[in-house]
Design brief:
heterodimer, A: about 120 residues, mainly alpha, 2 domains, B: Spore Coat Polysaccharide Biosynthesis Protein SpsA, Chain A, seven-stranded mixed β-sheet, globular
């Protein structure tokens, strides 16, 4: 089936990209590869996801995957939102230090008229 | 209003005006900033203007009017700019701090009233409803009244005004009033911190002058939604 080739190709591409960027923690890479392998298994043996779904009380395997993906996406969003807020807080600190530092430097060595900071 | 528990201890020795720092956060206020700053520096107060990434000559004009100018390399928001100015003023030995709007809606003539109120309090909040409001539309007044009800509900305090940017506090209270809300929710954050740290607060009548300029720069009702979002979801 063509869909299987497309899905496996996509998973392989992600794996290749992750493999190229090995500057992350080993944990991240292992987790991503485990997810890719799980994905590949689900593509090659779709009936297996049905069995798992039945076991946990969901009708179809595709539905189970859908639910899991929603939870994972929400988790990832929250994770990055937290990081974003933290980064913004740090940025505020840096910009503030810079502003105060510049004012202090100008106070010690008064600007020689050229240093008007207009663009 | 809490009754003052201790005797005033800075009333004995008058604090010289240059030790009271007026903190102004300005963004693209080049049209009016010279007059606004001049009105304050003329009275002998120290002024620090934090230029929050303006694209016009707000910084140059404020400097010409006698302010110490700090410049944020990128725009961070009013709350962040005020806190930068407060940090700087304290570094320069400020004893009292006053926050003042850059658009000309506050009157320098009210600063002594606010600062004198610190004899009996840690923080003095300007109230336009105890004082006078000039040039506000009926719609704006209604919006403000609604904001006060909501603000009192959120903060658990009973104030006659909400989110008035005109206030004074002692330098000793500054650490417990630290602003972490970079944008507009800092006013609500301040009330929360006053209450959490059990600071002594008084309200002081001030005059607010709405001009066409300040109205154009003022906030729309829609921004209130953003403020509420920041308040609830970015609280530190």
């Amino acid at each position: 089936m063509i869909i299987r080739i497309l899905l496996l190709g996509g998973l392989a591409a992600i794996g290749w990209l992750v493999f190229l960027r090995r500057n992350r923690l080993p944990v991240h890479i292992v987790v991503v590869f485990l997810m890719l392998v799980a994905g590949a298994v689900a593509v090659i043996f779709p009936e297996l996801t049905n069995d798992v779904a039945q076991f946990v009380g969901v009708g179809r395997g595709a539905d189970l995957i859908m639910y899991v993906v929603v939870i994972v996406v929400m988790f990832v969003l929250l994770h990055y939102y937290t990081k974003f807020v933290e980064l913004q807080r740090q940025l505020t600190g840096v910009v503030r230090e810079l502003a105060i530092l510049r004012a202090e430097v100008e106070r010690v060595t008064p600007p020689i008229k050229v240093s008007s900071p207009d663009e | 209003m809490p009754v003052p528990k201790t005797r005033a201890y800075n009333a004995c020795v008058a604090i010289p005006r240059e030790d009271t720092w007026v903190v102004i956060a300005g963004l693209d206020e080049g049209a009016v900033i010279f007059d606004v700053v001049r009105e304050v520096t003329r009275e002998g107060w120290s002024v620090v203007l934090v230029d929050d990434g303006s694209r016009d000559d707000t910084a140059g004009k404020a400097r010409a009017a006698g302010a110490t100018v700090l410049r944020h390399a990128i725009n961070l928001g009013q709350g962040a700019a005020l806190q930068t100015g407060i940090d700087y003023a304290i570094r320069r030995g400020a004893r009292n701090l006053v926050t003042f709007d850059a658009d000309g809606q506050h009157a320098a003539a009210d600063i002594p009233t606010l600062v004198d109120a610190l004899d009996h309090a840690d923080i003095a909040l300007g109230s336009r409803f105890l004082g006078t409001v000039e040039g506000a539309s009926r719609r704006r007044m209604l919006l403000l009244r609604a904001a006060i009800v909501l603000s009192n509900r959120l903060s658990g305090m009973r104030l006659t005004d909400a989110h008035c940017g005109f206030r004074a506090f002692r330098a000793s209270a500054a650490p417990s009033l630290r602003i972490t809300q970079d944008r507009m929710a800092h006013a609500s954050e301040l009330l929360r911190k006053i209450r959490a740290n059990e600071l002594r607060v008084v309200e002081v009548p001030v005059t607010i002058r709405y001009t066409d300029h300040s109205k154009a720069k003022g906030q729309s009702g829609f921004q209130a939604i953003r403020i509420l979002f920041d308040y609830f979801f970015r609280a530190s």
